Amino acid sequence: MTEQQTHDEAHGGALGTRLNWLRAGVLGANDGIVSTAGIVVGVAGATDERSALLTAGLAGLLAGSMSMAAGEYVSVSTQRDSEEAALAEERRELREEPEAELAELTELLAARGLSEDVAREAAQQLTERDALRAHARVELGIDPEELTNPWHAAAASFVAFTVGALLPLLAITLPPPSWRLPVTVVSVLIALALTGWSSARLGAAPPRQAVLRNMAGGALAMAVTYGAGSLLGAAGV
């Protein structure tokens, strides 16, 4: 194994974490685009007043970004609580049953393809170096030094949603009245194509299907809300 290969593999977990955050950011921006576009296009079906469009768009942006941030905070906090509880239990087992834990670590390493002798030697060395981290990573699949941070997750979701939501909001309010709807639809579809392509690339999936699926979902959302807004506007609601 070359030095370069060793270096790359050592950072594989960190790379995976960064990719997960980037993927979450892309999906958060995608949600901001679709939800806010649906709101402003729906309102545009009922009225072309810039103040009404701006008010609806800002309300959707703030509500959506706060909801995303709160939801992500609660979700990641629950995940972190579970991780901390699992680590606390592992500390207790290591303190009260060290031999049983060493045997368990040996079995886990052997199950990954190591011979019994090599697995036992590796388990002993890992235990001497950092028993908790060894068991946490091999048995639980987590790193005690890199637990998920709910505040970071909430902030990332807030920012991603807000950035995505700004596009349809600006597209529906800045152009002249006759251009607002077509500019918004085209810009939203282009943005959804970009986020679909990005999410597919991050997940190593074929981008064509992701792009088409993303654009179709956004187009359907705008069509439904515009139709509803037009009906309400025609009814004088």
TrEMBL record:
Pfam family, one: VIT1
Keywords: Membrane, Transmembrane, Transmembrane helix
Transmembrane domains' residue ranges: 153-173, 179-199, 211-235
InterPro entries assigned to the protein according to its UniProt record, in alphabetical order: Ccc1_fam
Protein location: Endomembrane system
Bilayer topology: Multi-pass membrane protein
Keyword rRNA-binding on entry: no
Superkingdom of this protein's organism: Bacteria
Name of the molecule in the record: VIT family protein
